[in-house]
Design goal:
This protein has helices at about 5-30, 80-95, 120, and strands spanning about 50, 55, 65-70, 105-110. The chain is an alpha+beta fold. Strand 3 (about 65-70), helix 2 and strand 4 (about 105-110) form a beta-alpha-beta unit.
């Protein structure tokens, strides 16, 4: 199977991303109110982006939440499919544990905004 340059780069991160997702899912089930997650530092700020519904999105709305993010593009035919499937699995698990949205937010950033319009992302 041949991968695009971005696919090869993303493929290198899949084992780590998978491990992070597995650790995050496994860890969330055991967290209590007194538990804390290690702080690695503030994520870079972003603004001027739009979501799949065309609404503005910025880093401010995610402050204080655990954010799991990936970078994809919808015309990708290789690694993005695996990344999207893993995010979907994580989404379902977080929803079952009532963590999705209020404590944990999932974000997928498109690296091809000229093709990945809100309409394409929504579909």
């Amino acid at each position: 199977m041949r991968f695009s340059p971005l696919g090869r780069l993303a493929l290198l991160s899949v084992p780590l991303a998978g491990l992070v997702v597995v650790l995050a899912v496994a860890g969330f089930g055991r967290l209590r109110a007194a538990d804390t997650l290690e702080l690695f530092g503030a994520a870079p700020s972003f603004a001027g982006l739009v979501d799949q519904d065309g609404r503005p999105a910025s880093a401010d709305e995610f402050r204080g939440k655990v954010v799991v993010a990936n970078f994809i593009y919808t015309s990708c035919t290789d690694i993005c499919l695996l990344l999207t499937a893993r995010m979907r699995q994580l989404q379902e698990r977080l929803r079952q544990e009532n963590l999705l949205g209020n404590q944990v937010q999932l974000l997928s950033f498109s690296v091809d905004p000229s093709r990945d319009t809100p309409e394409v992302l929504r579909a």
